[in-house]
Design brief:
24% strand, 18 strands, 28% helix, binds flavin-adenine dinucleotide, nine-stranded mixed sheet, 10 helices
Length: 363
């Protein structure tokens, strides 16, 4: 997002991507309302997946509570979404170097030097968009941001095609588990766990073992599930527990998106924050354009970051609220109290389903 906007503002922008044009970031591909607003346009048909606007069923196994509502999400294929964004950026003048990994950032009298798998590059400003890997943070004195370890794989199931579930179950994890429909009877099944959690260890013999409790839950509700992937894939998700854990870089290096730590710890949504961050940093750099060129002084860095964070004020206050939501959701009793406020908070109908007789989605 920032790349295209910066190119349009006249910056010479090079985007490095460690993967190829079909790079696949582990993700469920759901765009929340904030992500849709930041995009400003609906992604083209080839990026969307059925059901395009799924309903959400909230399952609380601790409190025997099932609710259903429309979260106003849009369902996409994440690799197709990323490829479409890169095509849009290229059309606006961004250069893309695929299969090129950024390896080490250093600073000299002429600005920033970046060692990559394809040789050294020089630049005045370096936007660190490396996601959970957060290259610039790793090179800094900052502690790593907290993360949960997510696992997700594709299953075929006779669930109603609309089924999108968020399952809270403290016997499985303090985070949550999910089902996301992708059309033609296929669903993503996943869960996030504390790092090095016992349930995720020694799984070589049976990699799906970490999702057994979810598979049993589906079986108990009468659904049959066929595992399509040989194993669920794993990836960290950054889960800030305090706003002070966010990282805003130094000396012309500026993290955007998950590299700055911005991911909702309550839902795992991160796309909205990287899109909003992209727009905000493009605005900030455009404002200070006349002062860029050589090494960025600490004073200029402060001014750029101040303007960047001003542009992200709504996203930052939403993240602050989501940190509170995540703390509440991790405690079954608090969660049970807080969920009663959901219709007020969402300002839209929330349907209560019978715990003992689950209705099909949307019925
Ligand atoms: C299982 C799972 C499901 C999720 N589902 C959702 C969802 O439905 N909706 C949602 O909003 N969020 C979801 N998220 C979170 C979301 O995927 C991330 O927060 C979001 O992708 C962050 O975007 P980003 O651009 O900051 O980083 P990323 O999307 O991680 O992009 C980083 C890019 O940089 C490349 N890269 C990394 N290191 C280097 C390097 N050194 N050199 C060059 N290139 C590099 C990577 O290949 C990648 O393409 C999910 C996460 C997980 C793990």
């Amino acid at each position: 997002m920032s790349a295209g906007l910066l190119a349009r503002a006249g910056f010479d922008v090079l985007l490095l991507e460690a993967g190829g044009p079909d790079n696949d970031v582990l993700c469920s591909g759901l765009l929340n309302p904030e992500a849709q607003a930041a995009l400003g346009v609906r992604p083209p048909a080839h990026v969307l997946r059925e059901p395009i606007v799924p309903l959400l069923q909230y399952h609380d196994r601790d409190n025997h509570l099932r609710l259903e509502y429309d979260p106003h999400y849009v369902n996409t294929s994440r690799p197709a979404f990323d490829a479409w964004l890169r095509e849009e950026a290229q059309a606006q003048g961004v250069h893309i170097a695929y299969e090129t990994r950024a390896q080490r950032i250093s600073h000299g009298e002429h600005g920033i030097t970046l060692a990559t798998s394809a040789g050294e590059l020089r630049c005045g400003i370096l936007l660190d968009c490396t996601g959970w890997r957060a290259l610039s943070r790793k090179q800094s004195a900052r502690r790593p941001a907290p993360q949960v370890h997510a696992f997700q794989g594709t299953v075929k199931a006779d669930l109603p095609p609309q089924s999108m579930w968020a399952v809270f179950d403290s016997a499985l994890t303090d985070y949550y588990a999910w089902i996301v429909p992708k059309g033609a009877g296929r669903f993503l099944l996943g869960a996030g766990y504390p790092q090095a959690s016992a349930v995720t260890r020694e799984q070589a013999e049976d990699p799906w073992n970490k999702l057994t409790r979810m598979l049993d839950y589906l079986g108990g509700l009468g659904y049959s599930v066929e595992l399509e992937d040989a194993k669920p894939l794993g990836s960290p998700i950054t889960t800030p527990t305090d706003m002070r854990q966010l990282w805003w870089g130094e000396r012309g290096v500026i993290p955007v998106g998950e590299a700055s730590g911005m991911v909702s710890p309550s839902s795992g949504d991160g796309i909205s924050y990287c899109l909003q961050g992209g727009i905000a940093i493009a605005g900030a750099l455009t404002q200070f354009r006349g002062e860029l060129g050589g090494p960025v002084s600490p004073e200029l860095q402060r001014r750029i970051i101040r303007r960047y964070l001003q542009g992200m004020a709504p996203a930052l206050s939403e993240l602050r609220f989501n940190i509170l939501k995540a703390r509440t959701a991790a405690d079954p009793e608090l969660r049970n109290l807080a969920v009663r406020l959901l219709p007020l908070f969402l300002r839209r109908p929330v349907r209560r389903l019978d715990w003992n007789r689950p209705l099909p989605q949307g019925a």
